[in-house]
């Protein structure tokens, strides 16, 4: 996942990772620790990495294994440091606390070379979930780019990320419900359009709402995903919930572009 390094995007990362962790069966104590270390690491990027310049990318990756979840927070700025005592008291926990809450912790980087924090948190997961090798990657500049898999974790991560972004759009309850229905449909069908079942997509915030771009997919994948919006059993289509639905061809494959406005379609 990649997002602009802005304070309001920290919640997007936290929600998306919480969705992944909950799907994998992380217990409440570890989930609380996960949210804490992710918030701290991301806020360090927001505050320090691009100081005095336009926000650069905040990149986030997560991968599960038999023992837990490894989270990587990365920037391409001047480096991140623990905040001094004069900064916001609620966030004055620093890298020391990240290290204390993580079962393993690593930080690397250098002046003007960016910084990478890698932390592993214990996971009380079901055995079959832990063996799936689940991955979640986030990267961003002016949009949020997500790569997530295997298929069974696409839904929790995508719905959390979309709901967090939608909340910033002053979106109505009806439109939020529409967004979740579209998220469920995409999560169910999109993995079939990717050779490894790991879904790649981007979410861009627009003045009028949110634009979701799924891909690049294999040939025919975008059309099959659009066709899955049809609901023949009720004589309708989820396409009516969108403000834009089109297929784009790119150098790397096909994309399905879905536009969702903040205003009700009814």
CATH C-level of the largest domain? Alpha Beta
Q: What proportion of the residues form beta strands (DSSP E)?
A: 25-35%
Oligomeric state of shown chains: single chain
For the terminal residues, how far apart are their CA atoms? 33 Å
Overall 3D form: globular
What are the low-pLDDT stretches, counting only 5+ consecutive residues below 50? 80-93, 125-132
Provide a short characterization of the protein structure.
With 266 residues, the protein is an alpha+beta fold.
Please tell me about this protein's structure.
- The chain has helices spanning 7-24, 28-49, 94-101, 127-130, 154-167, 173-189, 221-227, and strands spanning 2-4, 57-64, 68-75, 104-109, 115-122, 135-140, 144-149, 199-206, 209-217, 230-231, 236-237, 244-250, 253-261.
- The protein is α+β, with helices and mostly antiparallel strands.
- The protein has two domains: 1-141, Heat Shock Protein 90, CATH 3.30.565; 169-266.
- The strands form two sheets. Strands 1, 2, 3, 4, 5, 6, 7, 8, 9, 12 and 13 form an eleven-stranded antiparallel β-sheet that branches.
- A hairpin with a 2-residue loop joins strand 8 (199-206) and strand 9.
- Helix 1 (7-24) packs antiparallel against helix 5 and helix 5 runs antiparallel to helix 6 (173-189).
- The protein is globular, with a radius of gyration of 19 Å.
- The two termini are 33 Å apart.
């Amino acid at each position: 996942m990649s997002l602009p390094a802005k304070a309001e995007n920290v919640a997007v990362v936290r929600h998306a990772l919480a969705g992944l962790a909950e799907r994998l069966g992380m217990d409440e104590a570890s989930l609380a620790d996960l949210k804490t270390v992710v918030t701290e690491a991301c806020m360090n990027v927001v505050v320090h990495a691009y100081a005095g310049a336009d926000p650069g990318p905040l990149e986030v990756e997560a991968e599960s294994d038999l023992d837990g979840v490894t989270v990587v927070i990365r920037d391409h700025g001047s480096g991140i440091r623990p905040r001094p005592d004069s900064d916001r008291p609620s966030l004055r926990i620093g890298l020391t606390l990240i290290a204390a809450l993580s079962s393993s912790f690593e930080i690397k980087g250098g002046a003007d070379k960016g910084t990478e924090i890698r932390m592993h948190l214990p996971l009380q997961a079901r055995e079959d979930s832990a063996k799936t090798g689940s991955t979640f990657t986030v990267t961003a500049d002016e949009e949020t780019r997500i790569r997530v898999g295997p298929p069974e974790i696409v839904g929790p991560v995508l719905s959390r990320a979309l709901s967090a972004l939608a909340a910033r759009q002053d979106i109505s309850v009806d439109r939020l419900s529409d967004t979740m229905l579209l998220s469920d449909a995409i999560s169910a069908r999109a993995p079939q359009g990717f050779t490894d079942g790991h879904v790649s997509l981007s979410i861009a915030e627009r003045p009028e709402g949110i634009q979701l771009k799924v891909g690049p997919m294999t040939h025919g994948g975008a059309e099959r995903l659009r066709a899955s919006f049809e609901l023949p059993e009720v004589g309708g289509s989820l396409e009516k919930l969108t403000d834009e639905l089109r297929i784009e061809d790119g150098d790397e494959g096909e994309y399905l572009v879905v536009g969702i406005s903040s205003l009700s379609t009814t």
